[in-house]
Each structure stands twice: as C-alpha cells, then as structure tokens.
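step: validate -> pass
step: tokenize input -> pass
step: predict -> running
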Amino acid sequence: MNDKQRNKIKVRIEEIEKFLNDNRDYSRFDSHALFMERSELEFKRNKENVNISLRTDSKYYLAAQCFKFTKNLLKYGYDKYTTKEEIEKEGVCFNKYSINVGYSQYCKDLKRFNSKEEMFGFVIGYNEAVNNSKAI
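step: predict -> pass
step: emit ->
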C-alpha cells in the first residue's frame, strides 16, 4: 500500500468517525453499513505489515494489536540495537516465526518465535505492558 492509499483510508476512517459522533440517532441512516466499512478499512490499515494469513474470528483484534505494537515501537523503541529511527525508516513486519525490522522475514530480526500464536501472545503482552506502564 502506498502513502496515497494509506492517507485515503485514514481520511475515510476519520470521516466515518466524525459522522457517527455527530449523528447519534443511528435509526436515521444505515449505521450497520458505516460500522462495517470502518471495520474493513481499519483491518486493511492494520494488516498492512502482517505477512501471515489472519482467518480466525479474531483477525480484526490481531491486526489491531499488530498496528498498536508498531505504534508503540515507534514511540518507545525496542532495545539498544534497534532504534526508533531505524524502525521509522524501515518499518516492521510480522511473519509466522518472527517480527522483523524491514519489509520481509529476511530482514533484521526483532524477535523470533516457535509459532504465530507465540508471536501474537508476545505482541499482545508487549502492548499490555506499555498500556499498564502508562497507568502508573
């Protein structure tokens, strides 16, 4: 996805959010269609750097966790070997057995795993740790 497509999705999500916030009487329009459109656009945005198939009932949640993880890395960094600047420049991708700095599984490893389930557990745990540290 290029920057123009990313921006188009971001703008449309913001338009839907504003419309839903300004029009609280959901019976006056097809709110279901708007909620579905927003969910699909968010999923498309969130899954951009996920290089594995997400087919389960929790695909929206897992894609959102990957998006949140990437945002947290950009804000807080990861370790002394992987800088925020490097992550910002190269990006992050999620693969079956690894999280990498770059666009594919052959780029610099951020962390390796035995399965995608282990990887998602790590991602969710990292996000929760960041979220809980903000609450302190």
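step: describe -> Residues 6 and 45 are 7 Å apart (CA to CA).
step: cleanup -> pass
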